């Protein structure tokens, strides 16, 4: 049975350390959306810094009722796929990089457009999303460089409307949404911090199945910080 979709109240902030940290501190706000024009201490997966310049992107977090029966890794993948559908309704540009990054192909290279984090505290699921809308930060040396929706030729919606659309799509994460493409694909060679192998596919619980010289491994998002 699917959850009833809620219209959540939206709180807009000019500047905040991070929308995720704000919601973590403000438990009394209950279920809501927090949208910031600028973050001073935005963080991505495993504490990586996320550049959050004013007006350049979408920086938001949403507090929802904690869903049941969905593996944490799969939960974030479904949330990111739902966000991709909101930003790319034609479904021809944005895809999912394991474990939960928003990516696209630009001139034959894979580029990163956004990322998502999540945590369950009490009865609340806190989802934090950062997306480069009109410009991407200059981050030299990245194996997968950043890019923006504008660079990719996608329409850039007004941030408030986009945040409301995405938050509504997150009301029912029991729904399985397939991205236009997944990276890595089955058969692709991979490297990470402590190993290398070949992708055997994405598991139903969100893990990545790989074969290595030592045998088959199932990677979870906490196992590695850089997959290339």
From TrEMBL:
InterPro entries: aa-tRNA-synth_II/BPL/LPL, BPL_LPL_catalytic
Domain BPL/LPL catalytic: 33-128
Name of the protein described by the UniProt record: BPL/LPL catalytic domain-containing protein
Organism of provenance: Geothrix limicola
